[in-house]
Amino acid sequence: MRTVRGVPTIRAATAEDLPAILGLYAELHPDDPVPSPESVQRAWAAIQAQPGRTILVSEVDSVVVGTTDCAIQANLTRNTRSLMLIENFVVAAASRRTGVGSALLREAVRLAREAGCYKVQLLSRSSRTDAHAFYESQGFKTLAEGYRLYL
């Protein structure tokens, strides 16, 4: 049985949220090495300097329980309408199926609409069938095959 908790609040992340965000990323990619504080600060500064880039966090009762990285990209097709790429979408295991993920995705889509984007796109590992069901429940469709080359 899940404990009923407060309503999720979605907002842009700040530097103070980095420890919580990194904790969520450790849930998403448990085999990744822990980054050094210096590399985290460099990456955060680069993200903050990038136009159209927003890392969102979802808080419940003042605790960060979800995050996603939204990047709006300029585009020369679709009558030059931008697109949004969503990366690193993660909700803490204990907070799944409580509305946190839905609220986080709704805010990302709202930002995309506000920016005049023609689409919101995300990728998910093929093995994450629960995540796929969630994305489809939020109106996302499987319309393409994704390819990656890890470097």
UniProtKB/TrEMBL annotation:
The keyword Cytoplasm does not apply. Pfam families: Acetyltransf_1. InterPro entries: Acyl_CoA_acyltransferase, Bact_Acetyltransf, GNAT_dom. This is Putative acetyltransferase. It comes from Amycolatopsis orientalis (Nocardia orientalis). Gene3D superfamilies: 3.40.630.30. The keyword Acyltransferase applies. PANTHER family: AMINOALKYLPHOSPHONATE N-ACETYLTRANSFERASE-RELATED-RELATED. One of its GO terms (molecular function) is acyltransferase activity, transferring groups other than amino-acyl groups. Coiled coil: none annotated. Residues 8-151 form the N-acetyltransferase domain. Keywords: Acyltransferase, Transferase. Transmembrane segments: none annotated.
